[in-house]
Write a structure and sequence with these properties.
478 residues, alpha+beta, Cytochrome Bc1 Complex, Chain A, domain 1, 2 domains, 6-stranded mixed beta sheet, 12 strands, 17% strand, globular
């Protein structure tokens, strides 16, 4: 999951900062406890707006007995479908009148995050509106049907593309029949058709409590006012949620797969492998390395494609979270169908060289986008609260967001090379997945016609290090 707003960058864990109160006008951070016993981090900055971000833990995606569409539809329904004392569709107009905003969304299958931003003088009214929609949403059937249809259409449109089908095949190889795969994909089942109001009610009842896992408040607000606002925001919610069970088994052994889609107008090629979770750190290095590898038209992968294939394919790299404990790295893009095999060789050689020799160019220049973003983050309370909240979920110290510039400055060529060696996969650890209208586009691949068949593709156990000589792969039992 990308957790801050930078192109081709991954979520960054943040360096530690003091929790002491400093001079007026200087951003500070502190760990606080509301009068009602809610723990939170307060980031005090001299901004007119205030942001409150709350993360509730969930294991809905991991369980057999849950409808996996409920969180997607439920999050929208809670906000748009009205609440006790607030007609359906009313909250959007009220937010606009107050120059405020609210949002609910899922993070890495493990949390539901609620965000509020508002002007300081409107805190009481905004919190009252938000509390009603958290505590007593109407969840009416008519609005449920409308929102469910819209979400289903968006999901189907997004995942009907060939590249999306390729990543769906990879999810089958990694997760198989487990509930989490269905939650990540929402394909091949009837989750939306089977979704009922009872599903939404059950999801709401077990998710939203007075004991969230992490809370951040950012803006020109003191601890007394922030604590009172949090108690009011979560008033009337259950005291404690259910015990969580997030058991999942992953299988990242590399495969070599071609998904044959005769109707595909373009072909795609992707490489996917596991990387350490964000809670273990090293993400400043990850952001810089991923950007250099496949972040823009000056990156290693783009230049390799342009030089060797004389093509300007948008071939990039990134990292994303399946769950809080399972993160993947990918290199992917569209390619000419007749050049899939050649493109694979180009990517392999470019990545091997990158991992061996490290990032080229001036490291100072590579840091500029990160430094530009974080040098202005104190002016944006939503970004401050969001980054701090994600750091909290990764076990970071309170207020780490305020010292991120120090951590960026501390990155060196040595630390980058160590990160490449210790955390970035070797080339033979990647699963390769091509999606093509031609069944013979990727030599020696396990050819399938639906993403689900990928789970039956044998592991690829050939020699990758110096010359790629894969063992013949086929469909069969693992």
């Amino acid at each position: 999951m990308i957790r801050w707003i930078l192109p081709a960058a991954v979520i960054v864990s943040l360096a530690a900062c003091s929790s002491e109160v400093s001079n007026e006008g200087t951003p500070t951070a502190s760990s606080e406890l509301s009068p009602g016993g809610i723990s939170y981090t307060l980031i005090h900055v001299p901004e007119d707006d205030v942001a409150i971000h709350v993360a509730w833990p969930t294991d809905w995606a991991y369980r057999e007995d849950t409808n996996k569409a409920a969180p997607l539809v439920g999050a929208e329904l809670m906000l748009a479908g009205g609440a006790q004392g607030y007609p359906a569709g009313d909250v959007g107009e009220r937010w606009a009148d107050l120059n405020a905003g609210g949002n609910l969304y899922g993070v890495a299958s493990d949390h539901i995050v609620g965000e509020l931003v508002f002007e300081r003088e409107d805190i009481s009214e905004v919190v009252e509106i938000a509390n009603a929609h958290l505590r007593e949403p109407l969840l009416g059937q008519t609005w449920l049907n409308r929102i469910s249809d819209g979400v289903e259409q968006s999901v189907n449109e997004e995942r009907s593309q060939p590249a999306a089908a390729g990543f769906e095949a990879v999810r089958w190889t990694v997760l198989g029949e487990q509930p989490l795969r269905n939650a990540l994909s929402l394909q091949g089942g009837n989750a939306f058709e089977a979704l009922s109001r009872d599903d939404i009610l059950a999801w709401h009842a077990e998710t939203f409590t007075r004991t969230p896992e992490a809370v951040t408040v950012a803006g020109d607000i003191d601890a007394e006012a922030a604590g009172q606002a949090l108690d009011s925001l979560l008033k009337g919610l259950p005291e404690k949620g259910r015990s969580l069970a997030r058991g999942v088994k992953t299988d990242f052994k590399p495969r070599r797969i071609l998904l044959h889609m005769p109707e595909a107008e373009v072909s795609s090629l992707a490489f996917v492998a596991p990387v350490p979770p964000t809670r273990l750190g090293g993400e400043i290095e990850d952001a810089l390395l991923i950007d250099a590898l496949g972040g823009d038209d000056q990156s290693v992968l783009f230049n390799a494609m342009r030089t060797h294939l004389r093509a300007s394919y948008a071939f990039g790299a990134g990292m994303d979270n399946l769950t809080g404990d399972h993160r993947v790295m990918s290199m992917a893009g569209e390619v000419d169908t007749s050049k899939i095999a050649e493109a694979e060789s180009v990517v392999r050689e470019a990545y091997r060289k990158f991992r061996k020799t490290g990032m080229e160019g001036d490291i100072v220049e590579r840091k500029v986008p990160l430094e530009a973003y974080f040098s202005e983050i104190n002016d944006h309370v939503m970004d401050l609260a969001r980054v701090e909240l994600q750091s909290s979920l990764d076990g970071g110290d309170p207020g780490r967001v305020l010292r991120i510039m120090d951590e960026i400055e501390a990155v060196t060529d040595v630390s980058l090379n160590e990160r490449l060696k210790d955390a970035f996969p070797e080339m033979d650890e990647f699963t390769v997945i091509a999606v093509s209208p031609e069944a013979d586009s990727l030599p020696d691949a396990c050819v399938i016609t639906t993403p689900r068949e990928a789970v039956d593709c044998l592991y690829s156990d050939g020699v990758y290090s110096d010359g790629y000589h894969p063992t013949q792969a086929r469909v069969g039992a693992l």
